[in-house]
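Quick question: who can interpret this fold?

. . .
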Amino acid sequence: MPRATQKSYYWIGFRTGLPFLLVVMPFGMLFGVVATEAGFTSVQTMAFSSVVFAGAAQFTALQLMADDAPFLIVVATALAVNLRMAMYSASLAVWLGRAPLWKRALIAYVNVDQSYAVSINRYEDEPDLSLTQRIGFFFGAVTPVCPMWIVATGLGIWFGDMVPDWMALDFAVPICFLAIIAPMMRTLAHMVSAVSSIVLALVFSGLPYNLGLLVAAAVAMIVGAQVEMWMSRRAEA
């Protein structure tokens, strides 16, 4: 049987990313609705989704700006929420680091939780894929997700008032992240880090300007790294 080409892996990635539209569409519409209600113009809201291009960080920054939080708090919190992208990049660099600079720049721009989750799982399951096949799969996975995030934001802006109250769009946010995170809980370190972040976020939920998220994220990463080191030392012993 002939080896699959970059083009065929693009379509494999496309089919893999397609189901995420079920959560990306309401997620993006919700942002359009919320941003408009917060006083953003249509241009500002569309620019937010097109330039920042980070759903969770956008919602976090929007909430803090609506609460008149200090500028530095808004920036620091949004960066902390998006800190996972640095870890995603480091993880993907192992598989895509030899790509041309312009491709790596484009991958960095369009990389989102969904594309990272399905791509890294594919790379680990099929470590013998060529670089072109990995790149093809990645861009296939983001094709149905990224453009529709912007389209959904526009729909939220223009049709937000027509959405009935019983149709709670905010269901998409937790479902989206559960769908992404659950398959990635493969080791004890992952699970301990996830549980730690949940517990700490609840414990520090009373801190102003959502600073509890910063504390929970930082401590959970440290805890996860320590567990990973402990597991490595135990395996070598």
